[in-house]
Amino acid sequence: MVEQLKVSDNNVLSLEAYGGFTEVDEKYCQKLFNQKLELGFETVNILIKIDELKVSQSSIKALLEDMVWALRNYTQMGKLAIVANSSIIKHLVSVDNLFFANKEKGREERYFDISEIKEAFEFVNN
Fold it and tell me: Going along 23-87, which residue ranges are E strands?
């Protein structure tokens, strides 16, 4: 399940994924992302809170399709804040950022512990 954490007028999309992630969730995320682009923003900053996401309850097809979609659309992404409570995810974000980051284009991915959610919002809003 995916829900918006906060609705904003700027280029920030903040989401929370919990329970299982399905194809319906994937389409919902894409719709919200595209709405930001339709408002005229060149890039979208994303905060995704995944501390309650259950991979075992998620659709593998949806997860794979989401990864493919992200690879096709990463140039329209700005800052990415991953909020969780997992050392594994923290390390994966560090590795992913080696390929994703482009300071000149404003692309950067950071991991935030769940206790740092306020800082994560500040990161994507600045």
Answer: 44-53, 77-84
Gap between the Cα atoms of 11 and 14, Å rounded: 10
pTM of the prediction?
0.93
Higher pLDDT, 120 or 105: 120
Tokens 């390929």 belong to 99
4 near 14, Cβ under 8 Å?
yes
Crossing angle for the helix pair 23-38 and 60-73, nearest 10 degrees?
A: 20
Interval 15-44 mean pLDDT = 96
Predicted confidence (pLDDT) per residue in 96-114, tens digit: 888 888 988 889 999 999 9
Q: What are phi and psi of 44, to 5 degrees?
A: -125, 125
What's the CATH fold of domain 2-125? Answer: Transcription Regulator spoIIAA (3.30.750)
Give the type of residue at 51.
D
